[in-house]
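Hey,
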Amino acid sequence: MRFFVASLLISSGFFVGYWNSGSKNNYRPPFVDGLQSSSELSFSAPSVVYNSPHLQLETPLVSHPENDNIFAASAITNVYPGGYTTGFYRTTDGGISWSGTDAIKTQSGSIISTVGDPLIAITDSSRYIIAYIAGRGGASFGLGVSYSTNSGVSWTPTYFIPDVNGPDKPAMKIDQFKGSPNYGNCYIVYSAREGIFFSRSLDDGTTWSSPKRISPRLQNNRTGVSIATGPQGEIYVTWPININLRNYIGFARSTNGGSSWESNDMSIESSAAGSGFQLILNTIKVNGLPAIDVDKSGGPDHGSLYITYAEDNDDGSPSLDTCDLVISKSTDRGLSWQPKRLINKESSEPGNYQVLAQLDVDKRGNVNVLYYDTRDTPTDDSLMVFFSRSTDGGNTFSDTRISDMKFVLKRLPREQILFGIAYYLGSYIGLASSNSRIVTFWSADYDGQYRAYSSWAAIPAESRLSLKVFPSGIYRSGENILQRPDSIELNVREQSSPFNIVKHAAGILDTVSGTAILELGQIQPGSYYLEAKHKNSITVWSSQPMEILHDSNSYDFTDSLSKCYGSNLLQSDLDPVVYAMYSGDVNSDGIIDVTDASLISNDAANFVSGNVLTDLTGDNFVDISDYAIADFGSKNYITVITP
């Protein structure tokens, strides 16, 4: 191993009554860098989630609270003639492949009979919970719940939440924020003739409380409820309402796990698209109902609330036509709301429709919205799926077409009609994120043959990088190989200060090639700095931002000094000429100095052996050869050089 030193370069709302801020818990999670920060994403080709002849409509989606790659979804299905049940679909690889069933069953194999409005949640112990409207005999309907402890293979028989009568459009949420005093609580809200009602479970969905009305007493139509939880255990609920011929977004909140509530039917005034956020396109009913979520990223907008819904362009709305998606934001937990912002950007003349929006604020604080869109269809009878994203707290959005596929809105054939209503195709679709993944999930009839409306999924396209780098300590220059395989880490960083980390990856350098294949996952194509980190070597940066595309990419630090920022590499003096990372930064403080040399000297004096940080040569012994490498770096003032 012989090297010589290369040149070194150096709208506002209101609440009646006093608002108690609730929990004193000020926990903020570390700001997650796993999700890409770009607002413009490219998606993989959509794929059928579960290929079957059955109808699959209303497709909620959730992520696992502990495993980034696990997501689960549900749907209304028509497995047996004249009846409905609930499907369950699951991915363990971040949305690339799926498994599941069109009919959840008990352990004995009996299909669980349901009516509609399936909801799904996952606990941190991997219990899957599905809630649904179900018949209790005659014309009586209640809210049923089943759960699975074996990844959806079998489910418990229907448990009816007590005292629920005539529920419609329920929503379910588990408080999964680690700093919340209500962590693990599961909540259900639903619409009924008397108002909006709330029930909770404190035992992972096994039993549920009797419902509590959380909206004002005024009897009115509030169908279409949405629920979210905040970082201090708050519960937020929103719904649409029409009062005296004017449309509003109703809003309620609780700071004590649902024991008490404050609510207001007129929190946000809205020029609702259609009649009460309901529209008819090509004889089919679609909606622009409100959806709510909360930023729990630990970032600059931590704790902010967002509500998205469809508006027309009356009364000063930012909407461009009769149906556009807008978003309202509150930074004071719903006491007031900032001016509305437009989400979708029209690709043609105003006059299109954006409907069935689903909202998700990911772990990095990006605001993501999935919806059906009629843009590029002059007749407004065909839908495409679009994804809009904001990386600046909801101020601006960028649009991405999931694919060029579209489907014509048509009534279902008689044998597939939902609830006897020929013009009804469901009320929501699915969007969810984990620390490093985003998954979209929706229903469509792309073949147009009425085989069925099937569930489809797509994820932002994924990338990988082949990284070649030699830590000088373990490089054997005469043979042009590494002494042993060794770990390497990579940070993909934004190209401008403060060079935020967009993606982190780790892999193993191959002994012969000195190359590691690193999975970058979902990352927006663009130019990024690459930062390579080895356990006892000086970290190196790419000399310039590198263009990363979907699929495969490569970067080689070993073939030219110009590949490294500041030419901060050591050049070999034997053929072939290669360039390697300076080894010797044992304590990873960014400089090789007497401290590192002393650590090696102490271990050598104590005959330390094995794969330890002070073994720079990789021969499993700490000795004078390791000390010489660190001493060389110390005498030459070797430090990390960054942009």
